Amino acid sequence: MADVRTETMTVNMGPQHPSTHGVLRLVLELDGETVVSVQPTVGYLHTGIEKTCEQKKWQQVIPLVERMDYLGAQSNSLAFCLSVERMLGIDTQMPERVNAIRVLIAELQRISSHLVWFGTHAMEVGAITGLLYALREREIVMNLNELLGGFRFFPSYIRVGGLREDIPRGYKEAVQAFLDRLPGKLDEYETLITKNMIWIDRTRGVGVITYEDCCKQGLFGPIARAAGGDYDVRRAFPYCGYDTYEFDVIGASNGDVYDRYLCRVAEMRESVKIAKQALDRIDPVGPWAVDDKRIVPPPKDQVYTEMEALIQHFLIYSQGFKVPAGDAYVPVEGPRGEHGCYVVSDGTNRPWRVHMRAPGLFACQALHKFIVGGMIADVIAVIGSLDVVMGDVDR
Amino acid sequence: MTAEQIIAAIAPAVPGATYEALASADAAVTPTILVPREQLVATCRALQGPGLEYVAFSDVTAVDFHPNRIPRFDLVYHFVSPHRRARVRVKVRLNNDDSIDTLTTLYPGANWPEREVYDLFGIVFDGHQDLRRLMMPEDWEGYPLRKDYPVQLRKDAQTYMPLQVTEEEFKANMERDRYQRQTSPAGKK
Questions:
Q1: Number of domains in chain B
Q2: Distance (Å) from the C-alpha of residue B86 to the closest C-alpha of chain A?
Q3: Residue B24 contacts A where some CB pair is shorter than 8 Å
Q4: What residues form DSSP beta bridges with B91?
Q5: What pLDDT, on the 0 to 100 scale, is given for residue A255?
Q6: Which residue of B25, B145, B152 is in closest CB contact with A328?
Q7: Residue B187, domain member (yes or no)
Q8: Per-domain boundaries in chain A
Q9: Could you tell me if residue B174 is inside a domain?
C-alpha cells in the first residue's frame, strides 16, 4: 500500500447547487469526506443597487432596498426609513400608531423569513415535509402583504414619514387569525423535527462557533445568540418603541446548528407575542404618517378635490423632498441579525450614498469557521443554519 | 458615551494622535470620531480595550465626496460593544491614492467588507491577506461606486469592456447633474 497516491480533491459546490440558497459558490478542498479548506465566492447576484440608489429620489429608494434582502424585505425599508427620518428629525414625532404598525409588520416579516429558513433548512437536511408545512403558513403572510400594498414580496408599504396609507379594512382581523393559528402550527413543526433522532444526529455539535468569534466576525442575530450572546438590537438600541414591548431575547449556549435551529423557532414564538401586543395598540382609526406636508403625500380623495393637496402631491412626486446634509445609521434587528442603512445626504432630493449592512455577507465570509474539519454533508446543514440570502450578500 | 468621552478614554493609549468629534444626526446612539489615517489600527486596539470594549465589528464602507471635497473619501467603520450596548462610528479621510492599514488583524470580520470597499471604491488596504474584488468580475476595470464612474452617461456598459470616460465627458456630466440639482425646486414650498 506504500505506493498509494493520496491527494486532496477540489470540488466546486455551486453556484447552481440547490442547497446554496441561490448563487453561493464554494470551492471545497476535500480529504476524503473531510473539508480541508473552503473558499466562498459571491457576487453572482450583484446588481449595483447601492449605485442605483444614488440616482433616485429619496422615496424611490424604498422599492430598491427592499429587493436586497428579499426574504426580509420590509426590514430593509424600515432600516432605510428610520435612518432618513433621523436625518429629517421627524422620528420623534412619529405617531404611536405608526410605530405599532411598523413593529407588527417587522415581526410578521421575521416570521415569514424564518418560515422560509425553517422549510429550506429542514428540506436540505432531509425532512422534505417541513418545507411544505412552512410555506403553507408563509403564504398567509404573503397574503397579508398583498392586503397592505398589493404586492406579495415587496409591498413598499413602509415609507419615509410613516406608511403608504392606512391599514386596509379587515387587515387586523386577518393578522389576528394568523397569529392565533401559528403557535399550534409551530408545535406541529416541532413534533416533526425537534426531537427527531435523525435531525439531532445531523445537527448536534455540527458547525460550532464561539460567541467571541461571532463578535469579531461581525455575526449578530440568531447565530450569535445561539452561541451564548444576548445582543438583540431591539433591546440594545430600541427603535419604533420596542422598549415598551414584553418579549424575551432567545438564547442558547452551544453555538451549533441545532441550537441555531432552536433559537429561530423560539424567536418565531416571541415574534407572535410581540405582534399580538402591537396589534392591541393599533387603534381602528388614527394617523398613518407624521403630520409633515413636505414629506408625506396627501390622501387621494383630497388630491382630487383640493387645490393645495394637488400641489403638494405634485411637488412630492415630481421633485421629492430634501434631506438636510449629514449622515445617519439606525440599526434594526432584521431576521438575520443587525441590519441597518448608512445614509449620507448632501442636502438635495437624492441620497449621496446608501449603504446597507448585509448580515449574510458576514455569515458567508465566516463559513470556514463553521465547516473546516467537518464532513462535506455538514456543509449543507451549516449553510442552512446560517440562513444566508444571496440578494442581501451581493446587493 | 459621547464622542468627547470616547476620545478622552482612548487618547492616553494612542500618544500623538489628534482626534476630532464629528456631528451626525444619530449622535445620541452612534457618536462619531474622526481618526487620522496613520493611527487607525492603534485607535481600534484602544477601542477594544477595557472600559470601552468595542469588540464586535459591525461594518465598514466608504463614501466618495468627489468633486466636492478634498480628501475625497470618507472611510466609515461601525463598532459595537454588545454587553455595554454602545456603538461608535470611526471615520477616516482618505485621498485619491492614499492607502489604509487593514483591520483584519484586530477584527477578522473586516475581511470581506474591506474587499468590497476595495472592489467598489478602489481603496487599498495595506496588509490585507486576500485583497481581490468581491462583487465585480476580477478583470473589471474601474471602481463602480466612485462618483466619477459613469452611470448617468448614456453608454452601454458591457462586461469585459473597459469603461473609460474622458475628462471632458466627465465634467459635462457633472455640470449637467449639478444644473439639474440646482434647478429642481423641491422643498421650496
A1: 1
A2: 8
A3: yes
A4: B34, B76
A5: 85
A6: B25
A7: no
A8: 45-393
A9: no
Q: Residues near B5 by Cβ (< 8 Å), separated by ≥ 6?
A: none
Domain A45-393 in CATH: superfamily? Cytochrome-c3 Hydrogenase, chain B (1.10.645.10)
| Residue A251 main-chain phi, psi, to 5 deg | -135, 165
Q: Order the strands of the B73-81 sheet from edge to edge.
A: B20-22, B32-34, B86-94, B73-81, B56-64
A-proximal residues of B, 130-169, CB under 8 Å: 133-137, 144-145, 149, 151-152
Q: Which residue of B has its CA nearest to A87?
A: B25
Q: What is the CATH number of the domain that holds B109?
A: 3.30.460.80
DSSP state letters, A223-274: HHHTTT----HHHHS--TTGGGS--PPP--SS-SHHHHHHHHHHHHHHHHHH
Give the pLDDT confidence of A38-89 residue by residue, as tens digits.
888 888 888 888 888 888 889 889 999 988 888 888 899 999 999 999 999 8
In a domain, B164, yes or no: no
Contact call for residues A110 and A267 (beta carbons, < 8 A): yes
Residue pair B62/B145 in contact (Cβ under 8 Å)? The answer is yes
Nearest CA to CA, how far is A163 from chain B (Å)? 20
User: Is B109 in Cβ contact with A217 (below 8 Å)?
Assistant: yes
Whether residue A137 has pLDDT greater than 50: yes
**Is A229 at the interface with chain B, CB within 8 A?**
yes
Residue B132: pLDDT over 80? yes
* Residue B63 covered by a domain: yes
Mean pLDDT of all residues belonging to chain A: 88
Q: What mean pLDDT comes out for the span B95-113?
A: 89
Q: Report the pLDDT value the prediction gives residue B180, as an integer from 0 to 100.
A: 67
pLDDT(B187) > 50: no
Q: Is any Cβ of chain A less than 8 angstroms from the Cβ of B89? A: yes
Reported ipTM: the value is 0.87
Nearest CB among B26, B89, B134 relative to A330 is that of B26
Domain holding B26, by residue range, is 3-152
CB under 8 Å to B23, separation ≥6 — which residues? Answer: A326, B32
What pTM, to 2 d.p., does this model score? 0.88
